Amino acid sequence: MRLWLLRHGEAEPQARTDAERHLTKRGRKDVLLSAAQLEGRPLTAILASPYVRAQQTAELVREALGVRLPITTAPWLTPDSSPAEALRQLDNYVDGELLLVSHNPFVGDLAGLLLHGHRQQPLPMQTASLAELDGEMYAAGSMELLAVVHPH
């Protein structure tokens, strides 16, 4: 199984709530740079946090790739979500290549859990960073890091 983890692009510093922050012009540009790494990949699902900046990031990726996949909003992909809960949710996606669009600290913690079996070594993820993981199952310590792309 191939898992792609994408942290949302740079967002405006303030909004009425954190969940309502929109991508900046630079954030959009950086997301498109990361999306280029997914060109030709056979994505089977795109899941995104309900936060505006993650939804915008997922939509930019989808448009850049020209894929017709729906963007599935996953409430378990927010900044403070539980990586352990994410592993339970990922059991629903056992085939193909999956793209998760999320936030720090969650995305770094999830990667650390999948790679090392614990959260004490989170994967450093800048805005619009894209990590490629591969493994036989979504379980703690079961995946291998193939690449990380930082657009800036």
TrEMBL record:
Coiled coil: none
Source organism, top-level taxon: Bacteria
Molecular function GO terms recorded: protein histidine phosphatase activity
Record Pfam families: His_Phos_1 (PF00300)
InterPro entries, A to Z: His_Pase_superF_clade-1, His_PPase_superfam, SixA
SUPFAM superfamilies in the record: Phosphoglycerate mutase-like (SSF53254)
GO cellular component, one term: cytoplasm
Protein name in the entry: Phosphohistidine phosphatase SixA
